[in-house]
Design brief:
The structure is a single chain. The protein starts with a strand and ends with a strand. The protein is built from 3 helices and 9 strands; from the N terminus they run βββαβββααβββ. The protein is mainly beta. A 6-stranded mixed β-sheet has the order 4-3-7-6-5-9, with no helix packed on it. A 3-stranded antiparallel β-sheet has the order 2-1-8, with no helix packed on it.
Length: 135
């Protein structure tokens, strides 16, 4: 997939969690590529980890309770970073034994999109724009 369409409060168009009320605060999952357990499976990627967006050079796990923006050229999209994405035992089945343990504390974050837009594969501008406001 070369691009995704993000909808405010709904998630990624076409994703299994799109517009699902139970997943509104976790409809998009972002992970740092440096945390992929490549020592277990060298070709591991988004599909195996069930993450939506992979960033390089960003400690996204440190951004919980922040608002971040990503811009791949079509304008910034804001995300509320709500909580850690905890890896499940399924990771050991699809990646390899030890993957769940390897991803503990660095499995990415669950987010709510705060704006509509398009994200494309390639270089992205990333910035933390402020604290996440709680209701």
């Amino acid at each position: 997939m070369q691009h995704i369409r993000v909808r405010r409060d709904l998630g990624i168009v076409g994703d299994r969690y799109f517009a699902q009320p139970a997943h509104r605060d976790a409809s998009v999952t972002i992970m740092a590529s440096e945390n992929l357990p490549t020592h277990i499976a060298p070709a591991v990627g988004l599909q195996q980890t069930r993450r939506n967006i992979l960033l390089r050079g960003v400690d996204i796990d440190a951004c919980i309770d922040r608002i971040v923006e990503l811009d791949t050229g079509d304008g910034p999209i804001a995300f509320a970073v709500n909580r850690a994405a905890r890896p499940c035992a399924w990771m050991d089945a699809v990646i390899g034994p030890g993957a769940q343990r390897a991803l503990r504390g660095k499995g990415g974050v669950r987010c709510t999109p705060l704006s509509d837009g398009v994200l494309r594969v390639g270089t992205a501008d990333f910035q933390v724009v402020g604290p996440r406001l709680r209701h």
